[in-house]
Amino acid sequence: MSHSSANEQVSESQFMDCYNDVESRFRNLVGLIQKLTRNDYASQTKQLNPVDRAKFDLEISYIINSLFTVYLQLKGKEISNHPINDELRTIQALMTKQVQLHEMMKKAPKLDKDVAKRLLGHKIRKCEDPDSVSSQEEM
C-alpha cells in the first residue's frame, strides 16, 4: 500500500510541476499579447522594412492561428479535419520560404557603394572632359 501511495505522490507532484509550468507559460503569453496589442498595427510596422514586415505578419498569423487551435481543443472540438490545420500548414510553408529567401539574400553579392561611387564619378568626369574624349577617339 505504501508503494501505491508513493506513486500517487509522485504523480501529484509531477502534475503540480506541469501545472505550474503551464501557468507560468500562460502568464508569459498574456504579457506578450498585452505588449503586442498596446499599439496599433500601423505604428508597430511603420519602421519595418518590407522583409521584416512580412516576417512580422507571418509570425502574428501563426500565433493567432495556433491560439485558435488551442481554443478549439479546449472547447473539446475535433480539429483533425478543421480548416485551421490547412491555414497553419500554409503559414508554416510561407515561413520556411521566407527563411530561405533571407538566406539567399545573405549570400547575394553586396554593392560596395564607395567603390561604385569612385568608379562612376571617374567615368562621368572622363565623359565630361572634351580633351579626354578626343584623345580616346584618336587611339
TrEMBL record:
The organism's place on the tree of life at top rank: Eukaryota
Any GO molecular function: RNA binding
Name used for this protein in its record: Nuclear nucleic acid-binding protein C1D
Subcellular location as annotated: Cytoplasm; Nucleus, Nucleolus; Nucleus
InterPro entries for this protein: Exosome-assoc_fac/DNA_repair (IPR011082), Sas10/Utp3/C1D (IPR007146)
Assembly behavior: Monomer and homodimer.
Its job: Plays a role in the recruitment of the exosome to pre-rRNA to mediate the 3'-5' end processing of the 5.8S rRNA.
GO cellular component, one term: nucleolus
